[in-house]
Write a structure and sequence with these properties.
By secondary structure, the protein is mostly beta strands. Helices cover 0% and strands 44% of the residues. It is built from no helices and twelve strands. It has strands spanning 5-7, 14-16, 26-27, 30-31, 33-34, 49-54, 57-62, 75-82, 85-90, 98-102, 110-115, 119-124. The radius of gyration is 15 Å and the shape is globular. The two termini are 22 Å apart. The structure holds fe (ii) ion.
């Protein structure tokens, strides 16, 4: 499936599938794990990204309570898919767990984020 994200359990490589060809994704001589897009938090820490329409674009935030942005636990990237485009903002520890994506208002805005500890999460507007 286009857009699927895979991780290598051995070396930690993470890749996104841009065109599905039907083969098996592999790394370090083994199949890679497909990361599930989680949509519901049951833990104290909140990961589901929220998508808010703001002037000139979309603001995506991670966590109803802001997600930690520590050296050993942080949101590595936030992605917005909208109107046939997919944009990604890469974050670093110490930054706010949010990203602004300029663009027109569309009906199909979907955000994903990747936490280095708790993996892949998805939220819709
Ligand atoms: Fe996390």
């Amino acid at each position: 499936m286009t857009g699927a994200v895979y991780r290598c359990a051995k070396c930690g490589n993470i890749v996104e599938l841009l065109h599905a060809g039907g083969g098996t994704m592999g790394c370090c001589g083994e199949p890679m794990s497909l990361l599930e897009e989680q949509t519901a938090d049951s833990s104290l820490e909140k990961h589901v990204p929220t998508v808010e329409r703001v002037e000139g674009g979309y603001l995506v935030k991670v966590g109803s309570v802001p997600h930690p942005m520590l050296e050993n636990h942080y949101v590595e990237w936030i992605e917005l898919s909208a109107g046939g485009r997919r944009c990604r903002s890469f974050l670093a520890p110490g930054q706010a767990p949010e990203a602004f994506f300029p663009g027109p208002e569309v009906q199909d805005a979907v955000a994903r984020e990747y936490c280095n500890i708790h993996s892949l999460w998805k939220g819709v507007k």
